Amino acid sequence: MKKVILLFALPLVSLPQGVQNATFEGQPAIRLTNGKLELTVTEQGSTLAELWLADDPEKFNPFWNPVRMARELGHPAHFDGGAGVFVCVDGFGPPSKEEHAAGLPMHGEAHSQMFRIRSGRNGASTFATLSAHLPIVDENFTRTIRMNDGENVIHVESELESELGFDRPVNWAEHATLGSPFLASGETVVDISGSRSQTRPYEQVQYGEVHRRLASGKDFNWPMAPGLDGTPINIRETPGDPHYVDHATTLLDPARELEWATAINLKHHLLIGYLFRRAEYPWLQYWGWYPASGKFARGMEFATQPYDVPRREVITMGKMFDTPAFRWLPAKSKIGTHFLVFYTRVPDDFRKVDDVRLENGHIVIEDRAAAKQVTLASRSGL
After folding, report:
1. At residue 10, does pLDDT exceed 50?
2. Any idea where the domains of the chain sit in the sequence?
3. CB-CB neighbours of 351 under 10 Å
4. Which one of 220, 291, 312, 359 has the largest count of C-beta atoms within 10 Å of its C-beta?
5. At 207, is the pLDDT very low, low, confident or very high (cuts 50, 70, 90)?
């Protein structure tokens, strides 16, 4: 008697227009496209891992990729959720000894979790919603990323929900980080909407393969930070003779409702920036990693707190520069954040950003010395 084998075709899950399955350093991801930008988002951590202009044959990515850098140096590395723009929640900095024993990682749980992904279209907009439970802190985190067709802008909306029956302080940062080759000596400059600043306190000048070049725990006005010998150092610039590590924080402008941070690669005439609500992120931490290898990283980390330090230290601090260093998450409730990412070419003589603002459905980026403005359509506001 002959055996009859029946073959059944399984239905393929079709993705909406503007969404593709992808990988990032061997990890599952999705790619969102809108005709202007292409963005890779990882399943682990909901990390914004790669970004390039859709018409750029070089796919010049401004984001930090520590796995690629380690591989190019011949060092082993694995993706842990940290790259590009990754979220640090609930926690920004190292855990305490007790938290570490309980399994809480550096920078909170979210970047280490695998997220459920739902994607779709809404009119002329492509979106992906990523969600995960954070078991140690017993919170739910959801992130929705939207890209409107034909825009150089990405809208990121996030929500944190507590499953606990009591109010609690929350530590939350967007670890937005530039990386080489976009970040290069003599080529890349950073501007922000803040002035009142402080260098991070430290005990040792030597820090592994690099050295501190900024004085410890000194107040200053951005961008001229005090060096070890007291000489001011312009920290908007990427240093030459690399063997440095920098660390500082800036209180973003209290007179503004929307804050911003930008970086320009002056050689390639490309600008990446972030626009966000001051009520949600009043601080921006600058972390500069400039080893002799040239594999640079620079954090433009907008956050609820000045520095990435253990939560007990943040709560004990309470305030800095008369500004709170944490945010409350009420019992059995939700809080949210919004920010915009924009990436675009700029004119050859566009050298500095003096202002970024939302006006009538557009992001306006201004270089006053060059008397130039770059205007980007942004139907998704803040």
Report:
1. no
2. 19-353
3. 14
4. 220
5. confident
